[in-house]
Structure formats: C-alpha cells, structure tokens
Amino acid sequence: MKKIADKYIKEFITAAHNVAAQGLVVGGSGNMSWRVNDGLMLITTTASSMAGLSEKDVAVCRIEDGVTLNMKKPSKEIGFHAGILRKRADVNAVLHFQSPWATTIACRNPQIKNFYVIPEIPYYIGPVSVVPYLIPGSKQLADAVTSALMKHEMAILRNHGQVVVGLNLDQVIANAVYFEMACHVILGTGGKVQYMSKSDIADLRREGQAYRTKCRMAMQRE
C-alpha cells in the first residue's frame, strides 16, 4: 500500500475533533470519510469516537470496493461512504452525523420536508432526501443512501440520523451545522414556522449552484 501522507491523517483527525466539538455526534455515533489519492479514502474505524479520534482510529480503504488496506476495521457504514465517493466525482467528503435537533426531526411523525427557514439551506444544501429506516451497516441501507445522494447534498435517515456530502471536510461540517440550526429553528417555533418565499429560495439556490460550480472548478485546477 502506498503510504498516506501524515498531513492528510492529521487533517482528517482535526476535522473529526471539530465534528465532535460542534455537537454533531455523541460518543461513538457517526462516521466520516475523505477521498485522498490513488483511489483511496480515509474513514473512521468502527466504534471510534470522533472526539478522541487518533491515528489508530483511521482506516485506509479502497474506494472501488471498500477493502481495508491498513488492517484497521472501518465503520460499518463503509458501504455508503465508498458508494458515494465511487459514483460522485464532485464529492470528496461524507459525514454521517446524529446531532440532537436534526435527529429529533429524523424520528418525528409527521415527517418534516421543508427546511428553508434560513438562507444557508437553499444556498449550500438545497432539497433534502429522506431514506426510510433500514438496518445500520446493511447493504440495503448502503444502497439506499448512495442512491439518495446521487442528486442531493443531504439525506435524513429515518430514526437514525443524517448524511451530508461535500467538496471537502470543512464543507460537510459547515453544512451539518447549518442543517442542525435549521432543525432547531423549526422545532423551536412550536409549529409556527415562517418559511422563506419561493422566489427567495429560487434565487439562493441559483447563487448556491454557481458557488459550488466555482469551487469545483477551483479544486480541479489545483
């Protein structure tokens, strides 16, 4: 196996600590992956805690089949992490998180579908896909999440949590924080939500798409 540069391992660990510091995971919940080089990905190991993540908790896997190359057992959600990175060339980071307000909505009945309450949602995230409850770590869940995120940046996993994808680690963390904030606003209003207008949403989505395209082009030039 080609050695992964120490700087990538350190950057991944720092990002995991940030995920925990932002309150996006509790204990050993959640997992994260990052495309590095030569068709490889870094992913948190099974049952690891992002708050205390260290080098021993980082698995190196092939994106093409999820096979581990450094003798460390990856998260049991390796299926959808590898699936998304394999099928979406514009995505370099995947974060499965279980923050309090967003996960409350994932467990809520009736289901909430409109999250356009703050500008960051239409600008950075857009429409949110919903995946029915499926057994964690199962092929069925991996296939469903991969499919849901082919044309979305965020998915809610019913009675489970959320998955967000992005160009880099900073982006997925920021978007998870924005989504958690939107869920807090929605639940905090006690049902008296003032949603953004359709015209404002359309404007923000158009601007956001242009921003994401610009970012992708900039990364391709690097």
Task: Please write out the topology.
Elements (H helix, E strand, L loop, with lengths): L5 H16 L9 E5 L4 E5 L13 E5 L15 H10 L5 E5 L2 H7 L13 H6 L3 E3 L7 H10 L5 E4 L3 E6 L2 H20 L9 H24 L1
In short:
42% of the residues lie in helices and 15% in strands.
Describe the structure.
The chain has 222 residues and is α+β, with helices and mostly antiparallel strands. It has one domain (6-221): L-fuculose-1-phosphate Aldolase (3-Layer(aba) Sandwich). 42% of the residues lie in helices and 15% in strands. The protein has 7 helices and 7 strands. It has helices spanning 6-21, 78-87, 100-106, 120-125, 139-148, 169-188, 198-221, and strands at 31-35, 40-44, 58-62, 93-97, 129-131, 154-157, 161-166. Strands 3-2-1-4-7-6-5 form a 7-stranded mixed beta sheet, with helices on both faces. It starts with 5 loop residues before the first helix and ends with a helix.
Question: Keywords, please?
Answer:
single chain; 222 residues; alpha+beta; L-fuculose-1-phosphate Aldolase; 7-stranded mixed sheet; 7 helices; 7 strands
Poorly predicted parts: none
SS summary, helix count? 7
Helix percentage range: 40-55%
Give me the Rg, rounded.
17 Å
H/E element sequence: HEEEHEHHEHEEHH
Strand order of the largest sheet: 3-2-1-4-7-6-5
Biggest sheet details:
7 strands, mixed
Overall outline: globular
Structural class: alpha+beta
CATH superfamily: Class II aldolase/adducin N-terminal domain
Overall number of strands: 7
Highest-level CATH class: Alpha Beta
Task: Report the β-strand fraction as a percent range.
Answer: 5-15%
| Termini separation | 25 Å
Instruction: Supply the CATH architecture.
Output: 3-Layer(aba) Sandwich
Please indicate the count of domains: 1
Mean pLDDT across all amino acids: 95
Question: Do you know the CATH topology?
Answer: L-fuculose-1-phosphate Aldolase
